[in-house]
Amino acid sequence: MKHLDVKDVLTNKEYTGKEVTVCGWVRTARDSKNMAFFELNDGTSLKHIQVVIDKAVLNVDDEALKLGASVKVVGTAVEGRQELNEINAKEVVLLGASPADYPLQKKRHTLEFLRTMPHLRTRTNTFNAVLRVRSVMANSIHTYFQSHNYVYVNTPLITGSDCEGAGETFTVTTIGHSDKYKTSDEYYADDFFGRRATLSVSGQLEGEVAAMAMGKIYTFGPSFRAENSNTPRHVAEFWHVEPEVAFAELPDIIEIAEDMIKYIVRDVLEKCPEEIKFFDERFEKGLIDKLNNLINNDFAILDYTDAVKMLEESGKQFQYPVYWGADLQTEHERYITEEVYNKPVFITNYPKAIKSFYMKQNPDGKTVAATDLLVPGVGEIIGCSEREADYDKLMAAMKERNMKIEEYADYIDLRRFGSVPHSGFGLGFERIIMYVTGMTNIRDVILYPRTVGNIR
Ligand code: 4AD
Hints:
single chain, alpha+beta, 13 helices, about 30% helix, elongated, binds 4-amino-1,4-dioxobutan-2-aminium adenosine-5'-monophosphate
């Protein structure tokens, strides 16, 4: 079906005065005695295009003026409001009718209501804007890494090792319920891979394999976590950006993370000004200023030990106790990012007992060279560390955690053949979209959120 994008017809003056064809879904419609007007959106722009029908000249099927109907319009583009083109219709073809039970009749619905219809909420302005910002940000991420000589690698989604060691994995099996096996070992021995396999929580371990040859790599794909946490920041299937950099120590990777975040935010501000203005008006007042401040200021870096001191001396009554060795809870992270710094903060050098086995152990014997990047409003968006490159120390850390060494044979081998200092991080794609759009629930920045008890 030959037609133009609404975005181009709206803004490109070359079309003014010319005959154009556009297709889309009806977003608003007004009918009067002599004239009818409707606004059409085809998803290429946040703004709709107005179609004007002179009833003396053109007879239009009533069904084409119903909200949600899909139509093709042929007509002359003329300059209308705000210097945008509209279309004086010559022909309106109804492609698909939309009966009165089309749920998006009202202009504004709550996000909770829209979550009940993931297949239709995409036709609202909010999701139009979210999905375009998401797409532009994905491109920014690729452009950032590609332009800095990183190699994009695709790590496996089915794995035999649990990267984070937290046990929050989905098992991949072809057997299912059976009384045939007495033990889980027997069960998995008979299963598809001959041993237990899971969906990957992170591509890091395989990413390190690639980085030990290609130097700088990144992955960008889904990760899966069976965390039973029904929060506005967790989904069971999220998109994960994971660079891994050889010859980089913790301060180097912190610099890279900050540079990458600033690049993405700058790019989205430049490429999606209308969408960001929309979010500023509707969802987070001051969003544009927040994003500009992020670009123009250094992120804070705060040692975990100092963070604990800061929390202890805050005079605040926290629900969860603060002490050296405790994992920071959302309320603690919020205090630090929102009340103290009001900007992104890297918290560094966490106690080793609350972090993963692969993190480089600091000389103090108590902490690891790891950092989380926390941002106001969302909390943690990046988990980052220098990796333990020393064979003996890595083995000791794994044994301390009673890990099955044989499941990590390749990973350990990397420490035997030309091991180098190296670091990497994982950025939660949905989490940074939340930060950039001001959306406060992760379920509203992904097409089909997978959460506990929900697999529509
Ligand atoms: O801090 P995490 O667990 O780090 C890792 O997985 C490392 N292996 C990454 C690396 O060093 N290559 O997760 C990284 C980020 C978190 O900061 C968060 O943004 C996101 O992944 N994330 C989630 N996002 C949405 N829903 C969930 N359930 C998430 N779990 C983690």
